Amino acid sequence: MTDEPQRVGSAPDDHVTAQALDRARRAIDEHARMVADFPAPGIDFKDLTPVLADPVGLSSVVTALTHGCRGIDLVAGIDARGFLLGGAVARELEVGVLAVRKGGKLPPPVHSTSYTLEYGTAVLEIPASGIDISGMRVLLVDDVLATGGTAVAAAQLLGRAGAEVIGVAVIMELDGLGGRATIAEGLGADLPVHAVVNG
């Protein structure tokens, strides 16, 4: 017996995920809905809900998010759309999933972290009992990478619980908001960040 976590997952091969990337990008082009002035005037919001409601869109996006994944023990999905994706990606990789929740949603005890947003602060939590993630290699999943603060906070929270975040995967990286740079600064320039599309 060893204290090493058992690695049960298996990733689709790169040829399969590369084909899924092409299909996912076509599905996003076809189904994503642009909403002007949301959530504030001057912001154009790209709604991915119709993409995920389409069976081909959902399937291709989920497989595309696994592109380049190797040696994953656990997928962590960030509240809330990351839950939808995280569970599906974990199923694809044949590993478990952990929900990284907004503050106040989990019963105690919890591991928690607060972090600064452009409009205030927020709290993320994961269970502190019943789940031992120490030593696990984690893929962090969300729908959108914007400024990167939430991803950094989630990865640091998982790290304090003993896990190692070895990659971040998102459907869309928003251009011009510095999310990738924030992740590099907060988590290290070598941490892979995979986005299906940029927008």
Please characterize this protein's 3D structure.
Catalyzes a salvage reaction resulting in the formation of AMP, that is energically less costly than de novo synthesis. Pathway: Purine metabolism; AMP biosynthesis via salvage pathway; AMP from adenine: step 1/1. It comes from Gordonia hankookensis. It is found in: Cytoplasm. This protein has 199 residues and is of the alpha/beta class. The protein has 6 helices and 9 strands. The protein has helices at 14-31, 49-53, 55-65, 81-93, 149-160, 179-187; strands spanning 33-36, 44-47, 74-78, 96-102, 110-117, 120-127, 137-145, 164-173, 193-198. Strand 5 and strand 6 form a beta hairpin.
Largest sheet: 7 strands, mixed
What general form does the structure show? globular
The amount of beta strand, in percent, is 25-35%
Helix content: 25-40%
Instruction: Enumerate the spans where pLDDT stays under 50 for 5 or more consecutive residues.
Output: 1-7
How many helical elements? 6
Structural class: alpha/beta
Count of strand segments: 9
Order of SSEs, N→C? Answer: HEEHHEHEEEEHEHE
Separation of the first and last Cα atoms: 47 Å
Q: Give me the Rg, rounded.
A: 16 Å
Mean pLDDT: 92
Describe the strand arrangement of the main beta sheet, using strand numbers: 5-6-4-3-7-8-9
